[in-house]
Amino acid sequence: MSLEPNGTTQPSHQPQVVDFKKKPTIIPARAIKKFHKFPDGTGGHGDVWMCSWRLTTPLREKTWKCKVAVKSIRIPQSDDIELVERFGKIIGHNVHVWIDLDHDNILKFLGIVEGFGALPALVSPWMENGSLDSYLRRHTVSEVEALRMCTTKEWFTVI
Questions:
Q1: Is 0.85 surpassed by the pTM of this model?
Q2: What is the pLDDT of residues 32-50, one digit of tens each?
Q3: For the Serine-threonine/tyrosine-protein kinase catalytic domain, which residue ranges apply (predicted)?
Q4: Scanning 45, 103, 118, 157, which has its CA 20 to 30 A from the CA of 3?
Q5: Rounded distance between C-alpha atoms, residue 51 and residue 16, angstroms
């Protein structure tokens, strides 16, 4: 059994090695704490967890906490090595692209953390308004503004 970031235990499985062409910041699992027992958001292949990240200076004289989103891949059968490897390649590619992106309209990539499944999870700042899709469902925006946002989202999805 292994201890998960939220204090629960899960059956042991060896975290899979992902080939990162550019080395991301590795966030220690003990520094990330889930706010809730269940994911705060889900998608086709993954879950998003609202978490706190406790950061401490090297000499431990100061500590900060910030709210982050931890995005984990949900793999139906973590013992399916081919499937895990395929998703691992996707994560590696996403990190390779995301790690260097620096734009006001692109969420900042903060690093990776273990303990949210068979593969490393991606960490970014928590957005109080949720995903672009959920924001557009809840707010009235002009057609031009919605098109601009969706075009930007689609463009970044392609890269």
A1: no
A2: 999 999 999 888 789 999 9
A3: 41-143
A4: 45
A5: 23
